[in-house]
Amino acid sequence: MATPTKQSAESISWWTLGLGVKRWVVFALFSLVLVALAIAFILVEIYQGGWLPLPIYAISLNWLPRWQRAVMLSVIGVPIALYSFYRINQDVVQPFMPADRSAASVVVAHRRRNRGPKIVVMGGGTGMSTLLRGLKQYTSNITAIVTVADDGGSSGRLRRHMGVLPPGDFRNCIAALADDEALTTQLFQYRFGGKDDIGGHSFGNLYITAMSGVAGSFENALIESSKVLAIQGKVIPSTLDNVTLCAEIRETETQRMIQVRGESKIPNVDGKIKRVYLEPEQLSAYPTAVQAILQADIVVAGPGSLYTSILPNLLVEEIVQALEATKAPVVYVCNVASQPGETDGYSIEQHVKVLEDHTKNDLFDRVLANDAQTGALPDNLEWIKTDGKNTYQIAYHDVIDDDQPWRHSSEKLAEAVISLLSA
Question: Helix 203-215 crosses helix 153-162 at what angle (to 10 degrees)?
């Protein structure tokens, strides 16, 4: 049961500026005044006409001065009105609210996020989910544009056997943007054990795949799945085409150039990646993704695997054209630490050069990088630093997770991205 102090705080929160509640309270009170005047006219007519043999004189309080009548009625009426609003909140609205959250707090957060900036995030993998989890505290106008090149694990199996786009990264983004990451979200992320047909699959992947059949398409499945978790924003693919990510890699031992097909196989080759590309190369961007980029207040690429999460989105030509045309700043979030098999020994500048070489464009207005290189990294990782040869602006922030310094912190990274809107 809520304490009096908590109840008072919840009541006060209804009067937050810009919430939109006060105007309707005023309108409601105004309508009640009109109804009260109508009743008063009827009572006057009854009183003057002498229609009812009742002590109307005593009931109407005419024996008191008008100001005393006004004070008396206010003293009685105001507490009744406040208690009525409180009971409506407790008995009608509160049962539909998440646990441990008042209706007022939910409405305040909803209004604040609805007025937040339009942010587009591009990528895939855990890095993208990390950023989305932080950004949803600031705005619900988030569009996550996700790569469709994943072919490993549960997503790859469903893609091969069911003919759907790989649902894994979409599932992670939907879960990250969920309004309340509680039991339903945990269910969405639950992975079945065992080695049978269902072993290794996550419930969310199976759900999205099943919803694709029920809703008629993969994009409709994303919309319906997002409704289940009441996500803050929307999650969409960069393209609906069935693509394969390929790479040209120079082997370390033989120094010969080989071609590797499949996103999951690329990091496993011992060598240096020279180029990645999609098959087929001529792709159509998902129209909603292009529209979101053009209407954005800021576009963010990353964090995530450079070659297998970030670049697949930028290999869709219409996505690149939208990035060139948008008036929003385009920001690249550089990883905190190197990724074995992809970016060993890379500097910040080398990351950006790879992106520019693949797109043949200078897309990024700013690079967001970590400057808190503290804590112990695993032996196979190293900090990503600048080599001082950049021709663009680098925004440095402390964005590391204190417990896992080779990863980003959701809160710190989101705060850094929001700060770039006013930079």
Answer: 30
- Sorted by sequence, the CB contacts under 8 Å of residue 419 that are 6+ apart come out as 397
Residue 195: both structure tokens together: 């080695």
In angstroms, rounded to a whole number, what is the distance separating the alpha carbons of residues 282 and 140?
33
User: How many domains in the chain?
Assistant: 2
Domain assignment of residue 1, yes or no: no
In the block, residue with structure tokens 């919803």: 211
Q: Tokens 């909603």 map to which residue?
A: 288
Answer for the pair 332, 355: CB distance below 8 angstroms, yes or no.
yes
Q: How confident is the model at residue 341 (pLDDT cuts 50, 70, 90)?
A: confident
Reported as a single tens digit per residue, the pLDDT across 228-257 is 888 889 999 999 999 999 999 999 889 999
Q: How far apart are CA 212 and CA 193, in angstroms?
A: 24
The proportion of the chain whose per-residue pLDDT surpasses 90, expressed as a percent, equals 55
The sign of the CA dihedral 213, 217, 219, 220 is negative
Last residue of a domain, one of 96, 113, 130: 113
0.85 surpassed by pTM: no
Q: Report how far apart, in Å, the C-alpha atoms of 141 and of each of 91, 296, 375 are.
A: 31, 9, 34
pLDDT tens-digit series, residues 47-93: 666 555 555 555 566 667 877 877 887 888 888 877 877 777 667 66
DSSP sequence for 71-125: HHHHHHHHHHHHHHHHHHIIIIIGGGSPTT--HHHHHHHHHHHHTS--EEEEE-H
Residue range(s) defining the domain that contains residue 300:
117-420
Assign 3-state DSSP to the chain and report helix, strand, coil percentages, each to 5. Answer: 45, 15, 40
Cβ neighbors of 58 (< 8 A, separation 6 or more) are: none
Burial 395-423 (b: 16+ CB within 10 A, else e): bebebbbeeebbbbbbebbbbbbbebeee
Q: Is the pLDDT of residue 106 over 80?
A: no
Give the integer Cα–Cα distance in Å for 57 and 205: 74
> CA 200 to CA 207: how far, in whole Å?
14
Do 360 and 220 lie in one domain? The reply is yes
Let me know if residue 397 belongs to a domain: yes
